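Forum: Protein Structure Q&A
Topic: Joint prediction for protein chains with partners

I've read a bunch of threads here and the consensus seems to be that you should model interacting components together rather than docking separate models afterwards. I'd like to see that in practice. Below is the full input, 643 residues plus whatever partners are listed. Could one of the regulars post the assembled result?
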Amino acid sequence: MLTNAFILALRELRRNKMRSFLTMLGIIIGVAAVISLVTIGGGATRQVTDQISSLGSNLMMVMPGRRMGPGQGGGGAPFKLADAEAIAREIPSIRAVAPTSASAVTAIYANENWSTTVTGTTDRYFDVSNLKIEEGRGFAAPEIRSGAAVCIIGATVRENLFGRQNPIGSKIRLNKLSCEIIGLLESKGQSSMGSDQDDTVIIPLRTFQRRISGKTDVNVIRLSVKDGVSTDKMKKEIGYLMRERRHLSDAEEDDFSVMDMKEISTMLTGTTKVLTGLLGAVAAVSLLVGGIGIMNIMMVSVTERTREIGTRLAIGALEREVLLQFLVEALVLSSVGGLIGIALALIAALAVSGLLQVPFILNVPIILESFLFSGAIGIVFGFFPARKAAMLNPIEALRHE
Amino acid sequence: MNQALSDIEKGKPFIELREVTKIYGTGAARMAALGGVSFTIYQGEFVAVMGPSGSGKSTCMNILGCLDTPTDGEYRFCGVEVGRLSRNQRALLRRHYLGFVFQGFNLLNRTSALENVELPLVYRSEPRRRRHARAREALAQVGLTGWEHHTPGELSGGQQQRVAIARAIVTEPLVLLADEPTGNLDSARSEEIMELLTSFNRDHGITIVMVTHEADMAAYAGRTIHFKDGLIEHDRNHKEQA
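Posted by a regular:
Agreed with the consensus. Here's the joint model:
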């Protein structure tokens, strides 16, 4: 009986191609909207997590001053190199510690100049920040110790100063310091916060302190924790050590802060996730509206086909066969609409993710859910018109004009 | 029920109406469409039903076609009392033993002649191949070989009515009920349709009950039942008179 219902329903839909398509349109748009939004949203979330993990997922930062907002601090005496060394020495769960000091400078090479940030640090910085040297080499131990005039530059600096030329071995000026380029960083692109991670020049900390800032301060201590170590525990341990080193009495609050990248990560992905969910919900409402559209057209169709239904009943169709036929018609309409919607959504998501440079992640559960949901909508909204058709009195239906 | 129906032999009374009444509405709006009608139709007969509009002939046809049930009285189809059957049982009875031809053809538009003829077979769950073969055969019997894939819109009125007849006889029914089958056709087309019906009655032994307004058409039948005001005015057997 079910195969019969399918034969009859498919014949009917083929008979009215235009109407069938228009009826499906609501479902097509609904399903396409849900899937493409969720897919793009998923891609955006993935991008944020990727970028944060490219910063080093176990990264922590210690900054002087109480934390006032993300990345901002104020007050409190700056750290010294010895503080970073103490952390590395006394806390065993730490993989690497990199003291950093940064300053805005203008880098000059020949006629070109470029405003960028120069960071003074040690060779551990690359490990902590997940940076790789693409060409050339990193700092040698004697260069760090003695504060040699050498630097490693990011892709943006290289492009702006050297164009397509190979910069290794050339000398650039950073304020009054002339330093030799020994390495080139692998490009990391934009960070999730929108800053260009390739717009940077790295020099040994000692060189920075002597030749750029003229002070022995360390602005930020970056460190990475060994895998599987709780960052909360780390925060406490670093806190105790720093309080001790800074001679804070029990009554005094911390005059420094320890920041955990995981916090920022969950905060940032949380936002995109909430946004994705919200957009998905709005799209799901449009799917519901599509379902009402199906019911509407099916009602019109039942009225329009009253004579036909009468003929079928006279020929000997049972009530449940007519019911099933219309239900199957609604089901086929909505699920074919769902399939077309899925195809459109994937095309749209691919195009948009290419355009926004967001990774394309196939979200199979949401595709299956949307498909099943569209089928369910067909059955739910098709039931009332189908029942109306099945309950028709054949004599009156045959007389219907 | 099916067993009883399959035992039918030609010439036996198998449509029997006894004091059948049909009343529509209640109270002041109460109207008797049939006021106690009795007649018997035997296997193989060709009966014309005539009468002015409102005479009760359509109501009678609806009851004969198991589309409606009598308010009172008894309608036996092959010994089965139709009034006691449920809506679904009557649908099954129509599916297996009755064929319908309507004045307005009632073909599914934008659907090929073949698919239209196949429709009753689909409800009978015939396998696809058998369905095709039988539908083609039925179309050949009404002289429409070569027109299988034309839709009703591409066929003339006479051809459409032939498709409808093919649809009615494809299931090899015991009775064919025709409601003014020539009402929408010119006289030449009407004659063709009547020839066709007569041949099915004569060659295949299909009992035909046909409503008509025209005496010319009624003349093809062997018997004419005249209705007036919900009662039978007269019931004549032409063959006996001749």
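Chain B is about 35% helix and 25% strand.
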